[in-house]
Specification:
Blueprint: H1 4-13, H2 36-44, H3 51-63, H4 73-86, E1 90-94, H5 100-106, E2 114-119, H6 122-134, E3 141-145, H7 148-151, E4 159-164, H8 171-179, E5 182-191, H9 207-221, E6 225-230, E7 236-241
Parallel strand pairs: 1-2, 1-4, 2-3, 4-5
Antiparallel strand pairs: 5-7, 6-7
The protein binds S-adenosylmethionine.
Length: about 240
C-alpha cells in the first residue's frame, strides 16, 4: 500500500473536490510519490488551473465515474508546458475522458495546429464536447468517438505529439500504431506507467499491470526512441523518436 490515508486526506482537502460519501473514498486512492506537505508545496508553486479546467476537474469528480482518470492540476500543467515546448502542429490523444488533458495539450498548439482525441465512451462525449465548446480551442480540437485501435490506422497524419492514456492492455499496440505516424523528433507521452507502484510489486499479476510492464520494457528496448520515465502522479513515460 502506498500512503493511502495520506492520499485520501489530501484529495478530500483539495479545494473544489468533494467526496460525498465514505464509499466514494476508495475511488480517489492513487499513489503519491511525495509526502503531503511537499506535494502541496509543488502544487502551490505550479501555475493554477484555468477556471474551465477547475470546473472540469470539479464536475468530473462530482458527476462522472472513475474521476481519478482525469490528469489533474500538476500533471495537466506538465502536459501544457511540454506541449508549449514542442509547439506541435498535430497532436493525437488516445483516451479523451472529460477532455481535461486534451485542453492542457491544446494550450501549446502552434498557430493553425490541431488536436485529435479519441474515446470509445459515447455517453461521456456530450459532456466533453460541451467543455471543448466552452474553451478557446473548439475549432482546433476534433473528437472522434470509437475504438482507438480501429481509428488510428485511418488517420493519415504526421504527429508531433501523442498522448497515450486509454486502456492499458493496448498501450503496446498503440505504440506500434503511432510510431510510424510520428515525425522524427516527435514525442509520445504515456500515462500511468507506474500503475500506483504495482509495476514493481511481483505479486500483482493482473492483466493491466502485466500490460504496463510489457509496454515499459518494450519501449525501453526499442532503439527508435529515447525514453525517460517521469515520476509524476502515476508515472509518465516520455519517448522521443530518433
Ligand atoms: C484515463 S481516461 C483518459 C483521461 C484523459 N486523458 C485526461 O487525462 O483527462 C481513459 C479513457 O480511455 C477511454 N478508452 C478506453 N479504452 C478505449 C479504446 N479501446 N478506445 C478508445 N478509448 C478508450 C475510456 O473511455 C476513458 O475515457
Amino acid at each position: 500500500m502506498y500512503h493511502c490515508n495520506i492520499t485520501i486526506q489530501k484529495v478530500i482537502s483539495k479545494p473544489g473536490i468533494l467526496a460525498s460519501t465514505k464509499r466514494d473514498l476508495s475511488i480517489f486512492v492513487y499513489m503519491e510519490f511525495f509526502p503531503e506537505d511537499l506535494q502541496a508545496y509543488i502544487e502551490d508553486h505550479t501555475e493554477p488551473e484555468s477556471d474551465l479546467l477547475q470546473q472540469i476537474n470539479r464536475e468530473t469528480h462530482l458527476h462522472v465515474l472513475k474521476p481519478r482518470m482525469l490528469s489533474g492540476h500538476l500533471q495537466g500543467r506538465v502536459l501544457s508546458i511540454l506541449s508549449h515546448m514542442i509547439a506541435p502542429k498535430n497532436v493525437l490523444e488516445i483516451g479523451t475522458y472529460t477532455g481535461y488533458a486534451a485542453l492542457c495539450l491544446a494550450e501549446g498548439l502552434s498557430h493553425g495546429g490541431k488536436l485529435v482525441t479519441i474515446d470509445n465512451n459515447e455517453e461521456l462525449s456530450v459532456r466533453t464536447r460541451k467543455y471543448f465548446a466552452q474553451s478557446g480551442y473548439a475549432d482546433q480540437i476534433e473528437m472522434i468517438v470509437g475504438n482507438a485501435s480501429s481509428i488510428i490506422p485511418t488517420l493519415n497524419q504526421n504527429w508531433d505529439l501523442v498522448f497515450i492514456d486509454a486502456d492499458k492492455e493496448n498501450y503496446g499496440n498503440y505504440f506500434d500504431l503511432v510510431i510510424d505516424q510520428l515525425r522524427p523528433g516527435g514525442i509520445i507521452i504515456a500515462d500511468n506507467v507506474l500503475w500506483s507502484g504495482k509495476i514493481v510489486d511481483a505479486s500483482k499479476k493482473d492483466k493491466d499491470t502485466e500490460a504496463l510492464r510489457d509496454f515499459n520494457d518494450k519501449v525501453h528496448m526499442d532503439e527508435r526512441v529515447q525514453d525517460v520515465l517521469f515520476p509524476i502522479r502515476d508515472g509518465l513515460m516520455i519517448l522521443r523518436k530518433l
